[in-house]
Amino acid sequence: MKRSSAIHVCIQASLLILLGSALLGCASPPAVNPEQERLAAEARTRAEARAQAQVEAQAQVEAKAQAEARAQAEAKAKAREEATLAILPFTGFEGEEGETIAELFSFEKPISDSFTPVPRTSIIRAMRDEQGFQESSGFTNPDTLAAIGRQLGARYVVCGASTRLGSQNLLIISILHIEDLRQIAGDFQICRTPDEIRGKLPAMAKAIAAAIHEDVSALPLLAVPPVQLSGGADSREADTLAQILALHLVRSGTYAVYPRTKSLEQVQREYDNQFGGDVADEYLPNLGRGTNPRLVLSVSARSFGGTAMFNAAVIDLVSGVQKAGGSADYESLDKALAAMEELSLKLTGRWEAVLRERADHHTAATEAAFTRAVAAINGNPAGGAYTITLNGSFTSNRVIFLTGNAPKTITIQGDGPGRTISNDRDQALFTVPEGIRLVLDNYLTLDGNHKNAFVVSVESGELIMKEGSRLCNAEAGGVYVHSSSTFTMQGGTISGNTASSSFSGGGVYVAGNGSFTMKGGTISGNTASSSFSGGGVYVAGSGSFTMEGGTINGNTASDSSSGGGVYVHGGSFTMKGGTISGNTASFSSSSSYSYSGGGVYVAGNGSFTMEGGTISGNTASSSSSSSSSSSYSGGGVYVAGSGSFTMKGGTISANTSSAAAAASSSYYSYSGGGVYVAGSGSFTMKGGTISANTSSFFSSSSSFYYYSSGGGVYVAGNGSFTKKGGGTIDSTNSAESGKAVYIQEGSKRRNSTAGPSVNLDSARAGSEGGWE
Fold it and tell me: CB of 54 within 8 A of CB of 3?
């Protein structure tokens, strides 16, 4: 709004107020009072002044904000324009792969936002003129990088290399400042395939771009020359490890690191000349490229018996005094990366602190080493946090007991993909007693190895699963949560487990007053093959399950009275989020009854409260070749016995209940596509949506005896259903007897959509109950 317009509006408002007051006071105008006129005029003047002041203040705020935004944009644009960057083709690749990876790296947003890239055609042309681009080691010589960078007029140069270290493929990226040859940042990642390399580039680009804004002007300057070799040490391996060591030193923030450059000899001679008062012409070019490093890192690689040794010392070039030093040994190249991190800690004076922190950190590659680590933790009377990192996989033929002599948090993790502990006996691999919190973290698989036992038995303790952990292949179920125990699933996967006995859960069994909270992760591909079971989860007694996120999908229950995804028998299940989907409860028999819930089965005194989340795409199916069998099923949910289901939110959709009978049989089929309520079970709907569910029956003959179904909800026998206060059951549900709802008692049905304002009650007949 323009300033004059705002003042005009304020004046009009003041006049209208005065006019209105006058009209309300009397029908005819009062006598003119000079004092009142004066006061009114002063009020108008003050109103105009206030309005004008407000407009001017707002204008000043907007102008200041716009100026600041312009200044920031201009500063960012100027910084980006000055930060010219040449990204050389990455070495160690075949054909044009190195050029492709470098080009993809240049497209990453942190790079394009922080630098002005040099055209790739110019880079390739400059490289052709520089014969020393790649050394035999596969890494580009820093002197060569500087020469190419200066030729291109770039302030920074990025180089990368793919190399192999033991069984690991590494991608190493560094960025150098051309003015002084300083290595300002770097990163390395373990990459197994070219596709995986591409996935690592965003994080590496972010790390590289962030470094140019860090102030290292007060840090001592450290030059890192080529590695000295002895005892048959491999030059390529030593060069790779020196690169990794330099990157750790850059990250430490202790030194301003200068790369392994042949110019170091010139730097050292230049110091001698400067202190001698004589500066030779041949050394003058170095004086223009920043302050010369005073410290040098002397590195040597040795082979000592069957152990590789990496020795390093930080030496003052002027005084010759050793400022810091250390040695790192490693038995295999796969362990060399950790050795370089350890060596960098020794060189930066942080090793002692890390040792104190690692007093509670153990590593294990074998069963014997893992057993020693557990014994050390069990024997420590102090509480606190402990970590075991697997750097190998093994099979255990013993139960791993954790001792709760003090409150302890024990984290087990892998140092890389594929770290596995396999069970080799028909007892739980791990037991978690009172006082112990067991955390299963990244890169860890606990494999039941098809033994007749749980993978983990939580016995009054606490289990936590995080992203990257996995429990699998047990024949008695994945996890048993005993009474007074807790299990929190933040991520990870429970899959491929089987429960073959009645009253069990393929993936997880929650008993007594045990509790399970699912915030993330997946319970999938598990199977329950006996009656009264849950393919994914079984909640019994007074056990509780709270689902806030994650997925329970693709699980199977293959016997009568079972739930494909979840079976709640006497316990409670609260669903606030997440998904129960794609689960199956199927049963085929010649002479038996079938009761099944594709997604969820609630029985006994069990209760299920749905406040959010989705139950979708689940299937309950049965088939028979005998006239003595019948099926009762709910595609999404089955409520039986004295079980109860309360729906306050969320969605039950696209579930299917189906039955099939042979041509010669007379068959009874009762089903609900979304929900089936039987016995004394109850279903109460206060919110949420039930839609697109299907109930169907197939027979190759017309001789079947009875078929009755409800697309959204089916209520049989003494079951009860009420809908009041919200929620929608719509006509997209499909069934023969009632698209939305069918009540067997009294043949009450509703085919049209029952929206939030429509109340339904199975205990009332006709329109009073909401039936058509």
Answer: no
Nearest by Cα to 545 from 517, 508, 580: 517
CA distances (Å), 523 to each of 430, 549, 573, 603, in order?
19, 11, 16, 21
In contact, 472 and 478? CB cutoff 8 Å: yes
For residues 403 and 390, give the distance between their C-alpha atoms in angstroms, rounded to a whole number. 20
Tell me, letter by letter, the H, E, C secondary structure of 22-43.
HHHHCCCCCCCCHHHHHHHHHH
CA distance linking residue 191 with residue 170, whole number of Å: 6
What is the Cα 513 distance to its own chain's centre? 30
Q: Give the separation between CA 400 and CA 385, rounded to whole angstroms.
A: 18
Pairing of strands 720-723, 760-761: antiparallel
| C-alpha distances in Å from residue 55, one per residue of 3, 62, 657 | 6, 11, 67
- Give the number of C-alpha atoms closer than 13 A to the C-alpha of residue 729, restricted to the C-beta side: 37
Q: Half-sphere exposure of residue 85, counting CA atoms within 13 Å on the CB side?
A: 28
Do residues 233 and 302 touch, judged by C-beta distance below 8 A? yes
Q: Cα 268 from chain centroid?
A: 50
Residue 630: which residues within 8 A CB-CB, separation 6 or more? Answer: 593, 594, 624, 667, 668, 669, 670
Judged by phi (left if over 0) then psi (alpha if -120 to 50, else beta), residue 351 lies in alpha
Residue 97 dihedral angles phi and psi, to the nearest 5°: -60, -40
Q: Between the CA of residue 644 and those of 674, 675, 688, 725, 764, what are the distances in Å?
A: 15, 12, 16, 18, 19
pLDDT lower than 50: segments of the chain: 1-27, 131-137, 260-268, 270-271, 273-290, 591, 663-664, 704-706
The H-or-E segment that residue 370 falls in is helix 367-379
At residue 651, the pLDDT reads 97
List Cα–Cα distances, 230 to 223, 309, 335, 554, 747, in angstroms.
21, 10, 20, 58, 92
pLDDT at position 437 is: 94
